[in-house]
């Protein structure tokens, strides 16, 4: 039972909850709560260790037993100590430290994906988590995160992603690397002033979507990369949409078009 705030595992958790630099240097990030730890376990993610406290639900207790049976380092911790190192108002009683690198099974099957999300200058953790969750739901193959976007492995983003991190590759890349990876794709930048409506675009073709931040919009690098700037028609008198909402509209327009095209081919 861990009872001291000076325990090395507790110190590591505090470090990982802080700056992105600590997560990169330790090659680890945090997943808190029964659902997220379950998602990581199911995905075959590499665990460094798991801490749990009294009061864990039956579902959580079953999870702890499953983790332990697989040889994962699982250790009890005083409930007040676990609460002190978590960011949630009320801890669910379980927290995992995971390897930053995804399992090989989560890497893209091909070097050339056909459905890519690029969240550019998204600074709000909730918005980024929402975009990742939507990308996973819409069947995006990979997310390329440029330097100007908040760290996708920060605790708040992981929580908002609701397991998306364990369902699709989330890769931190430079703009030069992104340019190389999207070569051959149609790259569409979403902007309220776009010259073409998103309803007029053929998303059945290999596509990368760039969603810019609400505060500053898209970066110059994103604009240089884009092959077209598109808009979401808004008949109402509003200037723009929340980044998460805009991303959802566009990603599910990709789903709609590809689903319709697939059904037409089956006839």
Short précis:
By secondary structure, the chain is an alpha/beta fold. 38% of the residues lie in helices and 19% in strands. It has a 7-stranded parallel sheet with strand order 7-6-5-10-8-11-9. Strands 1-4-2-3 form a 4-stranded mixed sheet.
Rg to the nearest angstrom?
20 Å
- Work out the helix count: 10
Q: What series of H and E elements makes up the topology?
A: HHEHEHEHEEHEHEHEEEHEH
Q: What structural category characterises the helix and strand content?
A: alpha/beta
Overall 3D shape: elongated
Question: Main β-sheet: number of strands, strand sense, barrel status?
Answer: 7 strands, parallel
Q: Whole-Å distance between the termini?
A: 62 Å
Uncertain ranges: none
Number of strands: 11
Description:
- This protein is of the alpha/beta class.
- The chain contains 10 helices and 11 strands.
- The strands form 2 sheets. Strands 7-6-5-10-8-11-9 form a 7-stranded parallel sheet. A 4-stranded mixed sheet has the order 1-4-2-3.
- The radius of gyration is 20 Å and the shape is elongated.
- 40% of the residues are buried.
SSE order and pairing:
Blueprint: H1 8-16, H2 20-26, E1 28-32, H3 34-42, E2 47-52, H4 58-69, E3 74-76, H5 79-85, E4 94-99, E5 115-120, H6 125-138, E6 142-145, H7 155-161, E7 170-172, H8 175-181, E8 186-190, E9 196-197, E10 207-212, H9 220-225, E11 228-231, H10 243-266
Parallel strand pairs: 2-3, 5-6, 5-10, 6-7, 8-10, 8-11, 9-11
Antiparallel strand pairs: 1-4, 2-4
Helix pairs in contact: 3-4, 6-7, 6-10
């Amino acid at each position: 039972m861990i009872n001291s705030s000076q325990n090395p595992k507790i110190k590591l958790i505090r470090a990982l909850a802080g700056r992105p630099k600590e997560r990169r240097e330790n090659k680890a990030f945090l997943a808190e709560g029964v659902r997220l730890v379950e998602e990581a376990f199911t995905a075959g993610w590499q665990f460094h260790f798991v801490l749990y406290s009294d009061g864990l639900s039956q579902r959580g207790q079953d999870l702890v037993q499953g983790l332990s049976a697989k040889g994962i380092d699982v250790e009890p911790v005083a409930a007040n100590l676990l609460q002190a190192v978590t960011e949630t108002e009320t801890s669910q009683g379980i927290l995992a430290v995971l390897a930053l690198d995804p399992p090989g099974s989560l890497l893209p099957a091909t070097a050339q994906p056909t459905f890519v999300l690029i969240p550019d200058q998204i600074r709000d953790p909730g918005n980024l988590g929402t975009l990742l969750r939507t990308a996973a739901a819409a069947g995006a193959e990979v997310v390329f995160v440029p330097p100007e976007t908040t760290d996708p492995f920060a605790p708040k983003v992981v929580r908002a992603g609701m397991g998306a991190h364990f369902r699709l590759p989330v890769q931190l890349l430079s703009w030069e690397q992104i340019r190389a990876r999207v070569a051959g794709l149609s790259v569409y930048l979403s902007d309220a002033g776009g010259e073409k409506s998103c309803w007029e675009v053929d998303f059945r073709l290999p596509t990368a979507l760039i969603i810019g931040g609400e505060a500053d919009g898209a970066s110059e690098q994103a604009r240089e990369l884009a092959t077209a700037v598109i808009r979401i028609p808004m008949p109402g008198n509003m200037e723009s949409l929340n980044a998460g909402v805009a991303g959802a509209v566009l990603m599910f327009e990709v789903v709609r078009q590809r689903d319709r095209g697939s059904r037409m081919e089956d006839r």
